[in-house]
């Protein structure tokens, strides 16, 4: 009364379906493996290396028409983000070492001399640091103090220092002397704000400066 169902025609179709599903699964797993095997893109790349240096620094500038010299130093942490590019993060501080009398300012009939110094965070971009000569661009952002003192000798009294804000962008040309020694020459401009110390103002302390530095470290 009942006919036996004929499954001979369905079996090949079912087998083909299973094969197709298996093929798609293999392709899916292969694609996922290929994607996972690719290195992730990063901002700084895979060839990031580091270095560090310390440098005595001399700056030549002008105060009230007279040549002046500031001495100090800086330290820096070098990030070689690419064979052609490096960044330097660090800081430095500089103080006036030449003697400058302030016209029209006396104390008990004795002349007064300028006291001046500043420091802060220093950021620098280095282009092609492996070349013998290479340029850099840097900026200092920080604070300082200016005041008057009776004489630049031991025992000379110093009045209260007037704080100020300073930004000093600049450029350098660096010579690779040895693997651990670099000589830098350049210049910049010091922008000073916030000085209220008659007869001096911010404009009197904002000046161009030449810079010489000797960097010693691991580059």
Q: What amount of the residues lies in strands?
A: over 45%
What's the β-strand tally?
12
Q: What is the helix fraction of residues, given as a range?
A: 10-25%
CATH architecture: Beta Barrel
Explain what this protein looks like in three dimensions:
With 219 residues, the chain is mainly beta. 15% of the residues lie in helices and 59% in strands. It contains two helices and twelve strands; from the N terminus they run H-E-E-E-E-E-E-E-E-E-E-E-H-E. The chain has helices at 10-37, 202-205; strands at residues 49-63, 66-82, 85-96, 101-107, 110-127, 133-149, 162-178, 181-189, 191-193, 196-197, 200-201, 208-218. The strands form two sheets. The protein has an eight-stranded antiparallel β-barrel. Strand 5 (110-127) and strand 6 (133-149) form a beta hairpin. The N and C termini lie far apart (95 Å).
């Amino acid at each position: 009364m009942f006919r036996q169902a004929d499954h001979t025609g369905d079996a090949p179709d079912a087998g083909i379906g299973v094969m197709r599903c298996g093929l798609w699964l293999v392709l899916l797993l292969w694609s996922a493996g290929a994607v996972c095997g690719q290195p992730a893109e990063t901002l700084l790349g895979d060839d990031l290396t580091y270095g560090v240096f310390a440098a005595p620094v001399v700056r030549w500038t002008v105060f009230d028409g007279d040549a002046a010299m500031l001495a100090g130093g800086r330290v820096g942490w070098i990030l070689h983000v690419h064979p052609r590019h490096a960044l330097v993060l660090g800081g430095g501080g500089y103080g006036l070492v030449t003697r400058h009398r302030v016209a029209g300012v006396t104390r008990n009939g004795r002349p007064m001399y300028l006291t001046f110094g500043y420091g802060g965070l220093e950021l620098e971009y280095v282009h092609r640091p492996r070349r013998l000569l290479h340029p850099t661009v840097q900026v200092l952002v920080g604070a300082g103090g200016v005041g008057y003192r009776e004489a630049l000798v031991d025992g000379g009294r110093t009045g209260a220092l007037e704080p100020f804000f300073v930004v000093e962008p600049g450029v350098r040309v660096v010579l690779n002397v040895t693997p651990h020694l670099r000589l830098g020459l350049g210049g910049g401009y010091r922008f000073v704000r916030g000085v209220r110390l008659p007869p001096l103002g911010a404009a009197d302390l904002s000046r161009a400066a030449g810079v010489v530095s000797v960097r010693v470290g691991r580059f």
